[in-house]
Design goal:
heterodimer, A: alpha+beta, Cytochrome-c3 Hydrogenase, chain B, 15 helices, B: alpha/beta, Rossmann fold, five-stranded parallel β-sheet, 5 strands, about 40% helix, globular
């Protein structure tokens, strides 16, 4: 019996440090470990004793790619415990900055991290030698997303303008209107991006996923809403921990999430799309039809098309919000601390991001819990790899290793986030 | 002539500072034209062997393995530049330096025995010789490009060490502490962000760490006069540059007096 190993000890083109180790005895996978060796930073521990108003700035430091996700979920939790509802104008501005983050993060992943896999290049820098126009288009789109975050949030990484209750300063109409010409170009480029990625070749893999995402009656989910699943779950953030729990496995500095029935589940763009197709914006909906995306999408390699659809949506929404923009006055509502426990969710680019905080009457944090999208997807990523490797044993070690990496990158895993949260090794003996 | 080889290394961090290189959308392909991106796992599968003429190091040292790995990085690097508050001061995760890490591990992980970590989070310069430290949480991408450019031309990077106050004056922002009574760390914090927070009606919270010859005592006297209590002052000094010597010393003095 032949033995093989797949061994990738430092997975590239992901955010953070991860690995994959697979051991094959003949046609049987005897070991499969998607490991995370990113060192732990103990955010939940050192948040204890901090003031509740500091938490959006501190939790943004969990991730340089999706700080708006961390700021939003933590702010939602604090406003929940303090019983405060913000104005529609503040909600609109939060959605606008979140659109900026979806654009920069999705475009970064699509063009710089994932597209090189489909086209057979080591990196976007290599890709740019043969496809300079496409890479330049991606970089310009990414810059537009970053500019939205910068104008609303002060800077693109760890923005400084979001706070519990709203914003320190509302951008002026003129500042936002200046974004419109580039956003209009970006919307057109996003539609071209959908066409581009629809033409890729997708490895075969179809899995019966349990999808989990947020849902809001008025809009495709980003900064607010309930938590729903493809199995009919429909709950508030308060009930999240009754249905999902984390466990600690030795190979990983990230915790693995499962449903309370012990099932792996899938969060992120495919889950959001499948559970919210009816809420797509007009051009995103039309582009999805042209791309022949009929829900449920169950081939994870096609997530790159879904990500492109969500880029279209984010550009459309940003343009709509700016057209309707009425600066919030005041830019933030007062939020006096109230003792208790607050729950917050939002849709970070990689999926559902849950926060819970217990605070005392002075607003000091007594307990904090954060469940990032990548730890929720980790068991699903391992299950995908298991099925994919079993069906593709005829591939050479080199091709199998690369396609396994590509399968992991389907989830745009953010390992810096998930460490509380990767290294690929294929062992055929 | 062969292009110099660049390596980007990650230790405990959020990825934000190395992301700044990918965020230099207008300059990225030009940078890739002038320097060979030889080892940058976040961007490329291809890893070329060292030695590297320039290494950019992100993150702090928090595990026994990383304490060994940084020694190897130094051996393979002709010039080693640390980027961001984690690498230059230990980062927000240096808050563990005042805590019991065993308790920290227990509060986050069900099986602490699986976790291999040090009691401290420390700057790269505490472990190896560093040729230049670029501050910020996050770093400024303009300053990063200046550092790479200076390296290519063999000159010292032109990175100012004066305080945020200078940038505020230059930007024409009214002083939030004088005009609004908003506590601000700007007078003791190194410039580099463009005096962002005051321009958004909030006080500076010290992302770029202590400015050259920062004088903490008079500033903290002013904070107290504005009604800020000592536990709040300790928290304000203990964020992303908590273990930078000037901030650390001041927070420990205030804490001892509580």
């Amino acid at each position: 019996m032949t033995k093989r190993t797949i061994d990738v000890n430092y997975l590239a083109r992901v955010e953070g440090e991860g690995s994959l180790y697979v051991k094959l005895d003949g046609d049987t996978i005897s070991e499969l470990e998607f490991g995370i060796f990113e060192p732990p930073r103990f955010f939940e521990a050192f948040l204890q004793g901090r003031d509740f108003t500091e938490v959006p700035d501190i939790t943004s430091r969990i991730c340089g790619i999706c700080p708006i996700g961390y700021q939003t979920s933590s702010i939602n939790a604090m406003e929940d415990v303090c019983g405060v509802t913000v104005t529609p104008e503040i909600d609109a501005l939060r959605r606008l900055i979140y659109c900026g983050e979806w654009i920069e993060s999705h475009v970064l992943h699509l063009f710089l991290l994932h597209a090189p896999d489909f086209l057979g290049y080591q990196s976007a820098i290599h890709l740019a030698k043969d496809f300079p126009d496409e890479v330049q288009m991606g970089l310009r789109m990414k810059k537009i997303g970053n500019t939205v975050v910068q104008v609303v949030g002060g800077r693109e990484i760890h923005p400084i303008n979001m706070k519990v209750g709203g914003f320190f300063r509302a951008p002026t109409r003129r500042e936002l209107r200046a974004l419109v010409p580039e956003l209009e170009w970006g919307l057109d480029a996003a539609l071209r991006t959908v066409n581009l990625v629809t033409g890729f070749t997708f490895p075969d893999l179809d899995r019966n996923y349990l999808f989990v995402s947020m849902r809001h009656e008025d809009e495709y989910p980003m900064a607010r809403g309930r938590v729903v699943s493809s199995a009919g779950l429909d709950i508030t953030a308060h009930e999240y921990e009754a249905h999902f729990s984390e466990s600690h496995v030795e190979r990983s500095n990230a915790l693995h999430s499962l449903t309370s029935d012990g099932l792996a589940y899938h969060v992120g763009p495919m889950a959001r799309f499948n559970l919210n197709t009816d809420l797509l914006t007009p051009q995103a909906a039309a582009a999805a039809i042209r791309a022949n995306l009929v829900p449920p999408i169950t081939n994870p390699f096609r997530s790159i098309i879904v990500r492109a659809i969500e880029i279209v949506l984010a550009f459309e929404e940003a343009l709509r919000i700016i057209a309707e923009y009425d600066p919030p006055e005041p830019p933030a509502v007062e939020v006096p601390p109230v003792a208790g426990t607050g729950f917050g969710v939002s849709e970070a680019p990689r999926g559902l991001l849950f926060h819970r905080y217990q605070i005392d009457g002075k607003g000091i944090i007594e307990e904090a819990k954060i469940v990032p999208p990548t730890s929720q997807n980790q068991p699903t990523i391992e299950a995908d790899l298991h099925d994919f490797i079993s069906a593709n044993l005829a591939l050479s070690d080199e091709d199998l290793t690369w396609q396994c990496e590509q399968a992991i990158r389907n989830y745009d895993p953010c390992i810096s986030c998930a460490t509380h949260f990767l290294d690929l090794r294929l062992d055929r003996g | 002539m062969a292009k110099p080889k660049l390596a980007v290394w990650k230790f405990a961090s959020c990825d934000g500072c190395q992301l700044s290189l990918l965020d230099a959308e207008d300059e990225l392909l030009a940078v890739a034209g002038a320097i060979e991106i030889a080892n940058f796992p976040e961007a490329s599968r291809e890893v070329l062997p060292g030695p590297y003429q320039l290494s950019l190091v992100e993150g702090s040292i928090t595990t026994p393995h990383d304490a060994e790995r940084i020694q190897q990085v130094r051996l393979e690097s002709e010039v080693l530049i640390t980027i961001g508050a984690c690498a230059t001061a230990g980062g927000i995760q240096a808050l563990r330096n005042w805590a019991d890490v065993t308790e920290f591990t227990r509060s986050v992980y069900a099986t602490p025995a699986y976790i291999h970590t040090l009691d401290t989070s420390t700057a790269i310069a505490d472990h190896v010789k560093v040729d230049f430290e670029l501050r910020g949480c996050p770093i400024s991408k303009e300053q990063l490009l200046e550092v790479v450019n200076a390296f290519l031309f063999g000159r010292r990077p032109a990175i100012p060490e004066y305080s945020v106050c200078v940038e505020c004056k230059r930007r024409g922002t009214t002083c939030v502490m004088v005009a609004d009574g908003t506590p601000c760390l700007g007078p003791v914090t190194q410039a580099g962000c463009g005096a962002l927070c005051p321009a958004y009606n909030r006080g500076c919270y010290g992302c770029f760490g202590p400015a050259e010859s920062a004088n903490l005592d008079p500033l903290l006297t002013e904070w107290r006069r504005l009604g800020v209590d000592d536990p709040t002052i300790v928290r304000a000094l203990r964020t992303y540059n908590a273990y930078a010597p000037e901030f650390r010393g001041a927070s420990e003095n205030v804490e001892a007096s509580i």
